[in-house]
Structure formats: structure tokens, C-alpha cells
Amino acid sequence: MIDITRQVQEALINSRVMNGICIVFIPHTTAAVTINENADPDVVRDFLMEINKVIPFSDGYQHMEGNSAAHIKSSLMGFSETIIIEDGRLLLGTWQGIYLTEYDGPRVRKVHVKILEG
Fold first, then answer.
1. What distance in Å separates the CA atoms of residue 36 and residue 93, rounded to the nearest whole number?
2. Strands, E assignment, the chain
């Protein structure tokens, strides 16, 4: 899990939008985006430990590329997040951060950020 909060905040600052929404989109089938606690690194470790228990790497999957677990995890996590923008800031909770979750890597990934005023 890679904390991308700072990069998303920089995109917002560069946009100069004060109020609206921010959409973060991951255009990959084996990576996802989520919002979770970013103050305690144990949360990330616990998350990864538990998701790997629920969806193990090898479980008799039929997909020939050997990354079925990554596809399943990404689909369950989701490929986009929408965050409200208020007074030029992302309306995240005190302990919340935006994470790119990589399930089939490391790989080079794209993260699209769309800022909409409104």
C-alpha cells in the first residue's frame, strides 16, 4: 500500500479549486485505491495480512497468468475514490489517507486525479 495523499493534495493545490470533488481513479485490474488510516503503519500491515488470509495468493484459481488473487482483491477494493473538496482542502478525516494498493507488483502504475469545481 502506497500513501498517495500528498500527490493528490498537490494536484488539488495546482488546480486552485476551492470547492467541489476530487476523483482518484486507477486504470489497472490488479491495483486499487482506498481510503484508510495513515497515522499508524500497523494498520497497513494488519490490512495486508487479513486481505491475504481472505483471498490467498494460490487457491486453485483457473486464470492462467497466476494473478487471480490480485484481480479479486482489486475488484473488491475498487478502482476509484471520490473525496469532497471544501475550502481548498480534501475533506478527509484526521487519520485518513488515500492509498494505492498494489496486488501484482511492483509495477509501474498510473493514478488519474480529476478535480471538479462545484
1. 9
2. 2-3, 20-25, 31-37, 80-86, 89-90, 96-102, 112-117
Q: Write the DSSP symbol of residue 74.
A: H
User: Which CATH number fits the domain that encloses residue 75?
Assistant: 2.60.120.460
For residue 87, give its domain range.
Answer: 2-117
Residues in the chain: 118
| pTM score of the predicted model | 0.91
**pLDDT, tens digit, for every residue of 41-66?**
999 999 999 999 999 888 788 887 88
67, 97 contact by CB (below 8 A):
no
Domain count, the chain: 1
Contacts (Cβ under 8 Å, ≥6 apart) of 79 = 25, 26, 27, 28, 32, 33
**pLDDT digits 0-9 by tens, 72-114:** 999 999 999 999 999 999 999 999 999 999 999 999 999 999 9
